[in-house]
Amino acid sequence: MLCTLKIKLMPTLEQFHALLETMKRFNQACNYISEIAFRSRTFSKTKIQRLCHHVPWRYW
Asked: Residue 4 pLDDT > 90, yes or no?
């Protein structure tokens, strides 16, 4: 049985900015990975993970 909840976050201003920064970094990471996949013409999840695994998390 699948149960789904719909919730509304009500962050403080500080939490809002932290969430926004997290979303921006996640978007940058996704764009970077997409670029690597496109350049190498690799669209297999496993192969993309191998190509991107070496990238330090501080890159973004």
From this structure: yes
